[in-house]
Amino acid sequence: MGLREIENLSGSGVLTTRLDAVLRWGRRNSLWPLPYGTACCAIEFMAVVASPFDLSRFGAEVVRFSPRQSDLLIVSGTIVHKQAVILRRIYAQMAEPKWVIAMGACASAGAFYDNYCTLQGIDHVIPVDIYIPGCPPRPEAVLHAVTELQRRIDAGVPPRSQRTEGSA
Ligand code: SF4
Q1: Which of 63, 70, 90, 103 could form a disulfide with 34 if both were Cys (CB 3.0 to 4.6 A apart)?
Q2: pLDDT on residue 4
Q3: Is the pLDDT of residue 76 over 80?
């Protein structure tokens, strides 16, 4: 919620805004991530929430391991086909609005595990909002992805899960 969305009725001590702007402000500043870690990228995610990088500075430090309490799924690691079924079920258990970040080359595209058992990107089974390149990505890249997601929420861009085919 920016200053332009708040109207100060000068002298009256009353602020007005729109309900949707308040909801977006609340959502962008209180993302609850669910880390779905299967490999080395998950170790790098630990650095993101630790004090040197401190994800809590962006209001997203309340890590939850229950999909029903989370609105941001961060997939970090290699996903094999057997795991894809589990990943889909966990994603389905999250309430809308929900967002997905594919952290690293494996989650984004399978990376160098181009073989019979590895999913070549989680977007084959769930919609992805933001892809983070790297093997593993630096913690700064993850922070950048979270702030980019916040910018989109603030701008009213719907999650990929709510977009229809062909929309931006
Ligand atoms: S992208 Fe690299 S660091 Fe991340 S899970 Fe794959 S192999 Fe490991």
Answers
A1: 70
A2: 56
A3: yes
